[in-house]
Amino acid sequence: METNISRIISEAGDFDISVTEQQAESLLKHVLLVNEKNKNINLTRITSIEDAIDRHIVDSILYLKAMDSFDASLRLCDIGTGAGFPGVPLAIMTNFQVDMIDSVGKKVRCVESFIQDLNLSNRCNAMHVRVEDFARDHSKQYDYVTARAVASLRVLLEYSAPLLKIGGFAVASKGNLEQQELDEALRTAKICGMRIVTRETYELPHESGHREILKFEKYKQPSVHLPRRTGEAKLQPLY
């Protein structure tokens, strides 16, 4: 346990991310809870704690590199949260109000239990809902929208745009981003009233993978009505 806590603190420090011992304990507890649930429900293919530290914890907190403030007044929506990545680690590391949504009910029920066990229920929620349906009731409410391994970048931007306030940011993590995917996303961003702000590349510890963290700002209202019908973003992408 102590070795893993030290590893989290050290590996985060390699990316100039400061993690307290208490935060590291909570981050580790989350992956332990995920592994326990994973015995009965398929939440992750990563079962080694060492791999989970690199590919879940560090991978999630890298989103902090694209965030300028961790103030308690800020709201974050994590779409397609799965087992709570990156939403739960970001809640542990910040003072954000965090809403985590997923279309798979059993995953949401797991995340609800993680939130309780980690004492995050005062500022975190997990909800079983499709992102388009959620956006209809939560328009322009968020300062940040995050997503990890959910869809192509252009689809993520369309999902994010109606949720974000003007001046809010969509932050996405990608492995090996192809130029075509980026070009399509940049065209979609214009339609969605968004523009790319930063694109940073990182290598996860122990050759666990290449990551690109892309940050898009919503600077004006979309030129089309969003959200569109459920599923349309994937079936008929904007470009």
Q: How would you describe what is shown here?
A:
- It is a single chain.
- By secondary structure, this protein is an alpha/beta fold.
- It has a domain at 68-224: Rossmann fold.
- It has nine helices and seven strands.
- It has helices at 2-13, 21-37, 49-61, 87-93, 105-117, 131-137, 153-160, 179-191, 232-235; strands at 75-79, 97-102, 124-128, 142-148, 164-174, 194-203, 210-218.
- A hairpin with a 6-residue loop joins strand 6 and strand 7 (210-218).
- It is globular, with a radius of gyration of 17 Å.
- The N and C termini lie far apart (49 Å).
- Provide the CATH topology of the domain at 68-224: Rossmann fold
* Helical segment count: 9
Radius of gyration: 17 Å
Helix content: 25-40%
Main pleated-sheet profile = 7 strands, mixed
Return the average pLDDT rounded to an integer: 94
Corresponding CATH superfamily of the domain at 68-224: Vaccinia Virus protein VP39
CATH class of the domain at 68-224: Alpha Beta
CATH architecture annotation of the domain at 68-224: 3-Layer(aba) Sandwich
Identify low-pLDDT runs.
Answer: none
Task: Kindly report how far apart the N and C termini lie.
Answer: 49 Å
Structural class: alpha/beta
Q: Estimate the global geometry from the Cα principal axes.
A: globular
Give the helices and strands as they follow along the chain. Answer: HHHEHEHEHEHEHEEH
